[in-house]
Design a protein that fits this description.
Blueprint (H helix, E strand, L loop, with lengths): L2 H14 L5 H12 L7 E9 L7 E9 L1 H4 L6
Antiparallel strand pairs: 1-2
Helix pairs in contact: 1-2
Length: about 80
């Protein structure tokens, strides 16, 4: 796992513009990560702490696979 790549993607997405919804932020980061040729699948999650007094945080999580990777038959 290249954490520098992931960190750079997150920084770029956040620096580009303000995102009002966590779902949008999560999806934007997901799509950017999936552009890497070695990434086959990714899970992205976001959290907003201190939104409600009665819970630690609220958040969103998304998982996605590249479709063509799922259907590739193994070579014999």
């Amino acid at each position: 796992m290249d954490y520098d790549f992931v960190r750079d993607i997150v920084s770029q997405v956040i620096d580009q513009r303000h995102t009002g919804l966590q779902e949008t932020l999560c999806d934007t980061v997901m799509q950017a990560i999936l552009t890497h040729p070695h990434v086959v699948a990714a899970r992205v999650s976001t959290r907003k702490p201190d939104v409600y007094e009665d819970c630690e945080a609220v958040g969103v999580e998304s998982f996605q696979c590249k479709a063509h990777e799922l259907w590739m038959a193994p070579t014999l």
